Amino acid sequence: CNSVAFTEEHILHFYFLAGADFVMGPDADYSVRNVFGIAQANPELGARVVRCRHLGAQMLHIISGKSIHPVTAVPGGFSKPLAETERQKLLPMAEEVLEFAKWTIAFAKENIFPKFLDVVKSLGVIETGFLGTVGPDGSLNCYDGKLRLMKTDGTYTDFNYDQYLDFISEKVLPWSYMKFPYAKSWGEGFDLDLNAPKGIYRTNTLARINVCDNISTPLAQAELEAFRS
Predict the structure, then answer these.
(1) Which residues form a coiled coil (predicted)?
(2) Contact criterion met (CB below 8 Å) for 207 and 130
(3) Contacts of 133 (CB under 8 A, 6+ apart)
C-alpha cells in the first residue's frame, strides 16, 4: 500500500509540480512549466503521466478502501485482507506503472540529468549529516528497522528507537515556534551556520539513500549502484 502511495505521490511531485521546471526547462515561460505544458509539448507523455497517476489512485482504492485517507489501515495491520480477484486486478496496473517508472528514469538520465548535473553539484551545497532507517542488513527500509545517524565523513552509528534521546536533542530558538533537532551524540553542539553547521543532519529521501548499504529490490539496487558510481 505504501509503495503504491509513494508511486502515485512521486508522479504528482515530479510531473505535476517540481519536475515540470526541469522537463520544460527553467528558461521556459512559467505558464508552460506545469503538467499542461508537458502535455502540449509531448502529448503522449502527458497522457501516460495522467493515466499512471490515475492507476495509482485506483490501486490505492482497491487496497485500502479510499485513494485519499485510506480506511483499512489500522494499528497492527489491515482491517480487510486482499482478495485474490483484487490481486489479479492489481497486477496489470502495477506492471504498467512499473514500466512507466523505468521509462521515466531512462528519460531523466538522457534528457534531464546531463543538463543540470553541474548546477546540482555546485548550488546550495551544505555539508551535513544524515539520518534514516535501515534493515538488519543495512538495506533501505521505509517502515521499520534501526535508525542510522551518519556524519559528514560517512561514519555512522545505528541505534534503536528507544535510544533516540541518547543521540538526538532539540534546540529552541527565539525566532521560531519550531524545535530544531540536532545530533547531540556528536558532541559538537548546535549551529545553523551554513558554512560550518554543527550537529545538523538531514532526513527524508536523499538521506535514506545516503545511509543505506543497499536496496533489496534488483532494479532499485542497480539504480543505486549507478547513482553512487
Answers:
(1) none
(2) yes
(3) 141, 142, 143, 144, 145, 146, 147, 148, 208
Q: Is 226 helix (H, G, I), strand (E, B) or coil?
A: helix
For residues 215 and 134, what is the distance between their CA atoms, to the nearest angstrom? 10
Give the H or E element holding residue 73.
strand 73-74
DSSP 86-112: HHHHHHHHHHHHHHHHHHHHHHIIIII
Under DSSP, the state recorded for 82 is P
- Tell me if residue 63 falls in helix, strand or coil: helix
Name the 3-class secondary structure at 154. coil
Q: For residue 109, which phi and psi values (nearest 5 degrees)?
A: -60, -35
**pLDDT tens per residue across span 152-186:** 999 999 999 999 999 999 999 999 999 999 999 99
Averaged pLDDT, 125-130:
93
Q: Cα separation of 201 and 171, whole Å?
A: 13
Cell of 182: 540536532
